[in-house]
Records
---
Amino acid sequence: MENEKNEARPLNFLEKIIEDDLKNGRVPDDKIVTRFPPEPNGYLHIGHIKSICINFGLALKYGGRCHLRLDDTNPAKEETEYIDSIKEDIKWLGFDWGKYEFYASDYYDQLYEIAVRLIKDGKAYVDELSAEEMKEYRGSLTEPGRNSPWRDRSIEENLRLFEEMKAGKYPEGTLTLRAKIDMSSPNINMRDPALYRIKYAHHPRTGDKWCIYPMYDFTHPISDAIEGITHSICTLEFEDHRPAYDWACSIDGIEHTPHQYEFARLNINYLLMSKRKLLYLVNNHLVSGWDDPRMPTISGVRRRGYSPEAMKDFVSRVGVAKVEGVVDYSLMEFCVREDLNKRAKRLMAVLDPIKIVIDNYPDGKVEYFEAEDNPEDENTSKHRIAFSKNLYIEREDFMETPVKGYHRLYPGNEIRLKYAYYITATGVEKDGEGNITAVHCTYDPESRGGTTADGRKVKGTSHWVSADHALVAEVRQYDKLFSAECPGAATGNYLDDLNPDSLKIIPAAYIEEEAGKAKVGDYLQFIRNGYYCVDSRDSSPEHMVFNRTCTLKDSWAKQKAKMGL
Ligand code: ATP
Ligand code: MG
């Protein structure tokens, strides 16, 4: 199916480039090699899904391979927990890097040698300008930069100082190794970019071996070259860095020349996808963790009950382009609903219960009705639902004094209980404060299965559960984490737009017994209430917890209709 869809759409610009390169013999052994290069400084988010699908997807489509490269050049921020989560998330999406798992830190020795070679060739120098001064010397978009006074040291002195930097002789922020390119270049990234900085930090993989670390613009292209990457695909903000990328790939002795291509990053309204901001939410306990079901992280949407197929479908509908844009949140939910409609097991759950007593139904009697697990599936399996004298229906499905046009249960009105019988309300019981505690009804024994001999019609159908059989479970009603389309746009602080109603907990909902069999990773629909899943963190057989994945309301379809689509 996926393939049929891909076949039908026109090639995106990356596919065109690759097909052209393959046709013209520009790809060694006709094997394209891409890489997905996350920095392990946080969990992956929905934006990364786009990058993962592009990089792994192209490799699959053209019979090449995609490397996983952990870009771990910033030792202070990296953690093993992040690396583990990144791997889990890529696997969950169904992609496999096989044996091609690399770390930028694997190349520290080679990078160091290349830096030394650059110094020997007079193409790099040790600078003593402070960060402030360096910024001042760099110039601006309208002004050229100025040469550092340390730019013309002798090669011997540069070699000695760099060696001493590596040996830990200088404090952080004092010396920097810079490429000697061109301080008057119109591209600021070419004005003698820094190659190495001093940093006294323990690295998760290289330990305390190094106290100098290579910069991103130096590390990334050379890592690509070492791994034989053919197409180095990144987001548009790296476009200005491409000359620096090409410079690094053209250093003497570097044999393979990868090329960088940029595409527009995925932005979705109502969501924030900067790891820095997401980390803030986690550290300040504004969410329960990186995998909070409201987080736009891959682990968050997984726990929320989105499937990998729905997310891949979403990303494929968004497409690959070179122009930045903001995608509608409702398109993502549309993809999630389309997918869940096909696969979710239908169950009855009463979230806001009102008790029903069927007076003419025998005490202690239990009957079972059969329900299709998924009416959208021709070969659906079925399950049994217990029916008894005491039931629950949703509070909103009963009104003592009905408003005009109300077709559900009210005294004297007959409705259908889904799969079961027709019932008619006869009266209510109330507590001392006048709140209804139970609705009394009679049932028509001739209406078993929801149809009557005389074929009479009713307008309302309610879902229900048997009070004596229902599973009592916690239900977490999740909604958007931010209530503004562009969080922070109004006040400048995204925290002001946190949605106070993004989580409402129902401590004791009544769900049909069958729900007790649900496992983490199952996709469920509670009829008329929404799509749900078992919470992977907090649910246990003794205390089941269900998360609302999304409501049933299809706002995207409505919006499309409004737009005349
Ligand atoms: P953030 O800005 O959210 O912290 P990042 O770009 O620093 O993200 P990396 O770990 O460096 O995150 O990203 C790994 C890869 O994923 C990069 O190639 C990057 O271009 C890509 N990527 C990051 N965010 C998005 C996005 N929103 N849409 C598409 N690709 C993205
Ligand atoms: Mg980054």
---
Amino acid sequence: MSIAKKEYKRITVKTLVDMKSKGEKISMLTAYDFTMAKIVDGAGIDVILVGDSASNVMAGHETTLPITLDQMIYHASSVVRAINRSLVVVDLPFGTYQSDPKEALRSAIRIMKESGGHAVKLEGGKEIKDSIKRILNAGIPVMGHLGLTPQSIYKFGTYTVRAKEDHEAHQLKEDALMLEKAGCFAIVLEKIPAKLAREVAESVSIPVIGIGAGDGVDGQVLVLHDMLGMTHEFNPRFLRRYMNLYEDMTTAIAQYVSDVKSKDFPNNEEQY
Ligand code: KIV
């Protein structure tokens, strides 16, 4: 398998906007630790998202709500130490930006100063407009996130497709225009109808990156552990698995256990 061609030496927020204007699709994956981020960056990914999905895949929580700012900074700084080329975007976790714009800015500043990440991502539209503006005014690039916003899971009660009703679709389009106007450099659209996502991508000049949002957007993002098949209980329609690491790792570990028990490991060449 070939490694992606690295036409751009270092990805910046401006590179992403240029990619959209040239019709070049943007690749984005999550990563939360040094070793994985090194592989992801080396394979040619454009954007690494230190997602608050770390709460699920790294910490085993049911939702993204419990992860803290300190924990996000720990994950993000591990990722930043690994990368040479990718743009690193870090999620502001639940409870660190919704209550007031000053707190939002303080949280974003902590991420930028203490992790070395290049941008932050916030979930929501008009209700967090002032927080987004405050962060942008401090020179911190912001990626928006609309559609299914997992930090609001208890408001909706399910992880089903969002914006199927006309009024929700209308609000989502308005929010996307607001994010562009405020100065966000990109927007993630999660789990919405493909037709709506295409309309949004065509209506804004900033890149729109989809997850479960179809092929009419400017790029795609997946959770690394899902696309590598390390998680196996989660099977949404939009997820393409490129490996079955759950099975491969289980087989390898079971073989190791058996080799230790049978005294096959270590053999003569594997000792001093
Ligand atoms: O936290 C995350 O992994 C995300 C992606 C699903 C976009 O926000």
---
Amino acid sequence: MIEPSSAVQMWLWIGTIGMALGAAVFVLMAARERPGHRWFHTITFFIAAIAAVAYLGMSLKQGWFPILREGQEMYEPFYWARYVDWFFTTPLLLLDLALLAGASMEAIVWLIGLDIGMILTGFFAGVTSTDVRWIWFGVSAFIFVWILWVLLAEVLKAAKQRPPEVRAKFQQLAILLAVVWSIYPILWILGTEGLGVIGTTPEVASFVIIDLIAKVGFGFLLLSNRKVLDAARPAKA
Ligand code: RET
């Protein structure tokens, strides 16, 4: 039976503490706002809180099982808890961006539906021990490109109708999202779920770092400018 190493455990605890601190700060920022002005704070809080729970489970050595993949020599841990986290948090991140842009309900449903498809098929890829996993990887990657296209075509069009400061914030966050999210499939290919070029420790460490940027870093950038949030507030917040 394999056991996560102490280096892996240390990184997972960094993830837990980082996400929990992020969630705590976001909820404190929400408490300083008037009711009806906390839409983005609320969504962003749940993103960090859900990740904190997933990381806590992994830190407690839960949320994984050993798997021997075709083409690899050793059993490696498969952290399914990661996909549970992503299943809930990636739609919320897209919702934050779509609300900021003032996107149509139709565009929001597209984004969230596609995102759920990307994470589910990505999970199928991760959980499959044979080379069939590469077919699922391809399906998931295809949906990912589709999401970027909806964001950068449809949602950007909506953002262009917004006041200049909201549009600028949308562009900043959309670029951050496109760049940081693109690292996930690359890391997946290099890591134990793909080719196994990098080991479990650097893989877990890299995921912790990009998860913190994608959730807590993104959240801070979004919530840091009250003028932007007020200008972007949905009619019935
Ligand atoms: C997988 C593997 C299959 C192909 C693709 C993937 C993309 C994952 C993404 C995850 C984003 C996660 C975020 C988490 C927040 O902290 C499933 C790795 C395309 C884009 C933003």
